[in-house]
């Protein structure tokens, strides 16, 4: 039976932005669907998380349901899967998600842009302390420094232009890798797609020794 993958886009995007990644995952024989939402216009995270959880339920078409989230989408994926009761088994891949909180988002809020971060600004700014959910979590970070976040967020160390690699290193994750891509470029990167496919299938990234 094929395995299903739900794709979550990031802030200021819509589902169509994940089209190339969807195509690459489909070529790897996953059933892929995009979860579209208004990152700024939604009324709040509670209803969105419940709607997302409904998409992660087992079905006759697929008993395994993975989730791949870019940026804010990765944070929402973790929030939805903190309690896995009733959900189909599967893995999570986060691409460029500031899981420990975003310095760029905090800088943007201080400049008066909090309203443009939408109802998820708190999640973006603060992130999580650790991952204790039941699903295996793989994180793909970029290190091509192209993006506005580097200007407003005073990012430290290597980063993808919006998110520092250090911000993606959430305690409790299963595996972590870095590719040559900018923040937005992660969802178009062939290397990132290959790494995502590897983790969804095997729970580790290419180049890692089996655990």
Question: Can you describe this structure?
Answer:
- It is a single chain.
- With 211 residues, the protein is of the alpha/beta class.
- It has a single domain (4-202), classed as Rossmann fold (3-Layer(aba) Sandwich).
- 30% of the residues lie in helices and 15% in strands.
- The protein has 7 helices and 6 strands.
- The protein has helices spanning 19-27, 45-55, 72-81, 103-113, 121-126, 149-152, 190-202; strands spanning 4-8, 31-35, 65-70, 92-95, 137-142, 175-179.
- The protein has a 6-stranded parallel sheet with strand order 2-1-3-4-5-6, with helices on both faces.
- Strand 1 (4-8), helix 1 (19-27) and strand 2 (31-35) form a beta-alpha-beta unit.
- Helix 2 crosses helix 3.
- It is globular and about 50 Å long.
What descriptors fit this protein?
211 residues; AB_hydrolase_fold; AB_hydrolase_1; alpha/beta; Rossmann fold; six-stranded parallel beta sheet
At a glance:
By secondary structure, the chain is α/β, with parallel strands linked by helices. It has helices spanning 19-27, 45-55, 72-81, 103-113, 121-126, 149-152, 190-202; strands at 4-8, 31-35, 65-70, 92-95, 137-142, 175-179. It has one domain (4-202): Alpha/Beta hydrolase fold, catalytic domain (Rossmann fold), CATH 3.40.50.1820.
């Amino acid at each position: 039976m094929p395995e299903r993958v739900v794709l979550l886009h990031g802030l200021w995007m819509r589902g169509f932005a994940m089209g190339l990644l969807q195509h690459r995952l489909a070529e790897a024989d996953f059933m892929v669907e995009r979860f579209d939402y208004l990152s700024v216009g939604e009324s709040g995270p509670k209803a969105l998380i419940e709607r997302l959880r409904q998409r992660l339920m087992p079905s006759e078409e697929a008993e395994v349901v993975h989730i791949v989230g870019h940026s804010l989408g990765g944070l929402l994926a973790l929030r939805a899967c903190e309690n896995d009761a009733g959900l189909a088994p599967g893995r999570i891949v986060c691409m460029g998600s500031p899981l420990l909180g975003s310095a760029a988002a905090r800088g943007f809020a201080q400049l008066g842009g909090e309203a443009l971060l939408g109802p998820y600004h708190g999640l973006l700014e603060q992130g999580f302390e650790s991952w204790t959910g039941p699903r295996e979590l793989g994180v793909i970070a970029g290190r091509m420094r192209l993006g506005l976040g580097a200007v407003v967020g005073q990012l430290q160390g290597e980063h993808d232009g919006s998110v520092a690699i250090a911000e993606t290193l959430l305690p409790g994750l299963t595996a972590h890798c870095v590719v040559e891509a900018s923040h937005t470029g992660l969802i178009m990167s062939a290397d990132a797609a290959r790494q995502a496919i590897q983790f969804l299938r095997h729970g580790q990234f290419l180049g890692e020794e089996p655990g």
